[in-house]
Structures are given as C-alpha cells and as structure tokens.
C-alpha cells in the first residue's frame, strides 16, 4: 500500500490521536500477571500492542476486547501463565519481544518468539545478556537476532544491571525478570528513558524504588488488578506537532496527550527550533501526566539538538528531520546511533528520502546534518517502517509537487487511523493499494 500526497494542504482543527503504544503493551503484560480483573481504556488497537495481547492470550490469559479502546484482562496471577502452543509471533514489535523476554525468563515452560522481516534483523543480545546473568537460559539466532528462545524452569537471581545504552526496553526487561528473581534487582541507566514500567508497576501496588538513574524492585511480590486509562501517544501526536509547525496558517489542538517528562523531547526540540506550542489543561490520569497541546505555524530555525534530549524523543526523530528540512539553516543531531537499529535504519532511510526530496541531509555515524530548503516532489521508500511512512507524508505539506511514499501498510503498527485523521485536519493524503 502506498500513500499518495498532493503538495500543500492545511493543518487545522482538534484531534485525539490513538493510545500510547508503550503504555498499552505494559497494561496487557502487567494485567495478565496480576491478581484480579484489570480494565484498560484508550488501548492502542495497533498491530504492535495487539501482538502483545495475542501473546498473552496464547499463554492462557482470558482477555476481552479490544472494543473501542476497552480491554478487560482476567489476570492469572504471577505464576498462572501457561505454555503456548507453538511459537509466539510478535510481528514488527521490538517492545513485545524484549519486554516479554523479561516476563517469561523465569517461567516454568519454554517459549520461542519470532517476528517479521524487520524485527528479525534487530538486536536481542541486549536483553539476552542481562537475562543470562540472572540465570535464564536464552538462545538467539546468529548475531544475537530473533528468534529468541527462553528455556523454562530456571531459578533467577537478582542482579544490579548497568545498562550500556539508554533503552527503556532493556530496563523494563530486567525489571520484569526481577519480579521472578530471588532478591533485589536494580537497573542503572546512562540517561533517563521512559519510565512507564516503573509507574505502572507501582500502580499495580508493586513497590519500585527509583533514585535518579537507579530503579530497584524485590522479586516474589504480587500485583493487584487496577483500572488503566491510556493517554494519547505523544509519539503519534508528534507527526501533527511537526505538521502544524511547518504549515502556514496552521492552528491545531491535540487532546489528552501523554506528557510524561521522559517523553517530551519532541516538544522541547520543536520549541528550541522556534515552534509555537502551548501545553494546557495539565492533569494526571492514572499515574501519568496528560495535557492538551495547541500548535500554530511558526518559522522554524535549525539547531544543534542537545544530546540529553535524544532518549526523550527517540521515536520522534524521523518527523523531527522533516521539521529540520523546513527550518531556516542547519540542524545537527549527534548521539543518536540507536536510530540505526529501529524498525529500519532511521538515519539512512530518512537521509535517502530527504535527499530524493531535494534536501541536503548527510548521515553521520550517530546522527545527521540537515540543511533547511525547498522540498520537491518525489517517490520515496518507507522501508516498511511506520514512522518513516508518516514522516514523509508530513513533508508533503511543504512540498512543491506530489509525493508518493511506498510500502505504508505498517502504519497500522502504531497509528491505524493515521490517514483519516490526517485528511480530516487538511493533509491531501490518499491510499493506493
Ligand atoms: O519501552 C518502550 O516501550 C520503547 C522504548 C524505546 O526503545 P528502546 O528501549 O530500544 O530505546 C522506543 O524506541 C520504543 O518505541 C518503545
Ligand atoms: C522503535 C519502535 O518500536 P519497537 O521497538 O517496539 O518496534 C517504534 O515504535 O518506533
């Protein structure tokens, strides 16, 4: 499926983007091993979160829905998961594979997880290593890639794990394994990463101590079912924050967006570039901060992106590169080598696409240098990466000629209604099968 975009368009109105992907994954995993019935509202009905849901169903957890964002999870308790029949296929979802590895490392049964072509190329050694240190038996294919197999019946011991990279997936994996380990497990991260696991575990009544970069929990406790209200995903909102920032006359309000401090890099970076972004109606919903956000058009300027913002905006860089392409002057990103191991090599793939659109975009080992300019028309490849597809679609708002983005089926990974929502706000987007 391709996106075909006419050049120009508007960005006006009010919208609520779908539920947060990271929080949706975690709601299913923790709800599944809790005692009692967990209800979730605002669940992301995207393929990635559904991969996690289907995996837990395959391990004997009764789950109703999703229906209009509502999911009901009949928790089986910490030791109630059952061996799945066959392999667990988690599609495109790195979060499913890495977090489930932690949750399943201490179970009594064997599990093998597989993924699609993109996930099958992504590094799993980063979770296999700490799990092995805890006593798990973890097998990966050559080069530490999926499939990933966990041998059941191991007793796990707590570790103090210093993360070699800023990764919430690795941190969460170790903490989830720590639930089943003997003693107190701690993680130390090199820079702040999303803390949804720590917040949600606490919501389920599990004690997690956080002291700066260190998160700690003791194994052996139990989780009690709760109600979870999932905020709109700031990573999905980001496409429209950039869209409105670059589109003349834009005035857009995005409702109920999660503004967890570990996720707001996109707001900080756009503001540093001169973006007109107002955050209001700040409130807390189920342990996560939420707000409405109004974005108006502004002339952006190029900046050197501060490296401390990188983990706080890690999934938003593809669309931030489009903002940089529309800015006056040069934008420089460094310290972002993690972008090369996402659903695609997001540095190379964005550089290729922006160059095809007439923009000077020079990849570096750990980032990119982008010179603002006139976006031309082009046919570009998404490389089946949802965030790349949506980012190139946003670029059409400032293009001179039509843009075709090839291979866009994967937007359903994180943002199933992207096309209708974007069209409703004024983007000239249509789908070609
Ligand atoms: O924990 C999570 O839910 C996620 C963490 C990030 O990955 P890393 O941990 O690899 O940085 C992010 O890119 C991913 O989309 C979701
Ligand atoms: C990197 C992403 O997700 P995951 O690692 O779960 O595949 C993403 O959604 O941008």
Automatic annotation (TrEMBL):
Where does this polypeptide localize? Cytoplasm
Instruction: List ligand-binding residues for 3-phosphoshikimate.
Output: 21-22, 26, 167, 169, 315, 342
Q: Catalysed reaction per UniProt? A: 3-phosphoshikimate + phosphoenolpyruvate = 5-O-(1-carboxyvinyl)-3-phosphoshikimate + phosphate
From the UniProt record, give the pathway where this protein acts.
Answer: Metabolic intermediate biosynthesis; chorismate biosynthesis; chorismate from D-erythrose 4-phosphate and phosphoenolpyruvate: step 6/7
Chief subcellular site? cytoplasm
Q: Where does phosphoenolpyruvate bind?
A: 21, 94, 122, 169, 346, 387
Reported function: Catalyzes the transfer of the enolpyruvyl moiety of phosphoenolpyruvate (PEP) to the 5-hydroxyl of shikimate-3-phosphate (S3P) to produce enolpyruvyl shikimate-3-phosphate and inorganic phosphate.
Q: Which family does it belong to?
A: Belongs to the EPSP synthase family.
What name appears for this protein in its UniProt entry?
Answer: 3-phosphoshikimate 1-carboxyvinyltransferase
């Amino acid at each position: 499926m391709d996106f075909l975009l006419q050049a120009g368009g508007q960005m006006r109105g009010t919208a609520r983007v779908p539920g947060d992907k990271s929080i949706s994954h975690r709601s299913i995993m923790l709800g599944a091993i809790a005692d009692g019935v967990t209800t979730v509202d605002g669940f992301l009905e995207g393929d990635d979160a559904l991969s996690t849901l289907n995996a837990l169903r395959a391990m004997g957890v009764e789950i109703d829905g999703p229906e209009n964002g509502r999911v009901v999870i009949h928790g089986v308790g910490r030791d109630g998961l059952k061996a799945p029949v066959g392999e667990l296929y988690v599609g495109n979802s790195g979060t499913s594979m890495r977090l489930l590895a932690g949750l399943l490392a201490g179970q009594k049964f064997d599990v093998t997880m597989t993924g699609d072509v993109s996930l099958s190329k992504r590094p799993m050694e980063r979770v296999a290593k700490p799990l092995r240190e805890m006593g798990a038996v973890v097998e990966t294919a050559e080069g530490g890639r999926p499939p990933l197999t966990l041998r059941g019946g191991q007793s796990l011991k707590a570790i103090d794990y210093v993360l070699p990279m800023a990764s919430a997936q690795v941190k969460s994996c170790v903490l989830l394994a720590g639930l089943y380990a003997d003693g107190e497990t701690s993680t130390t991260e090199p820079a702040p990463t999303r803390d949804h696991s720590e917040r949600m575990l606490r919501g389920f009544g599990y004690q997690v101590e956080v002291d700066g970069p260190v998160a700690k929990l003791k194994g052996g406790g139990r989780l009690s079912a709760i109600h979870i209200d999932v905020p709109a995903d700031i990573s999905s909102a980001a496409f429209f924050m950039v869209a409105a920032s670059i589109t003349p006359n834009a005035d857009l309000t995005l409702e109920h967006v999660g503004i967890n401090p570990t996720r707001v890099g996109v707001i900080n970076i756009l503001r540093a570039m001169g973006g007109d972004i107002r955050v209001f109606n700040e409130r807390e919903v189920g342990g996560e901060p939420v707000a409405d956000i109004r974005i108006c058009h502004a002339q952006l300027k190029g900046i050197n992106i501060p490296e401390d913002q990188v983990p706080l905006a890690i999934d938003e860089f593809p669309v931030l590169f489009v903002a940089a392409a529309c800015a006056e002057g040069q934008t420089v990103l460094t310290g972002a080598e993690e972008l090369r191991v996402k659903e695609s090599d997001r540095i190379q793939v964005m550089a290729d696409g922006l160059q095809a659109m007439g923009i000077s975009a020079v990849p570096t080992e750990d980032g990119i240098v982008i010179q603002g300019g006139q976006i031309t028309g082009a046919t570009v490849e998404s490389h089946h990466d949802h965030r790349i597809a949506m980012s190139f679609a946003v670029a059409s708002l400032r293009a001179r000629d039509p843009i075709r983005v090839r291979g866009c089926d994967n937007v359903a990974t994180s943002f199933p209604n992207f096309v209708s929502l974007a069209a409703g706000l004024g983007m000239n987007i249509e789908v070609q099968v």
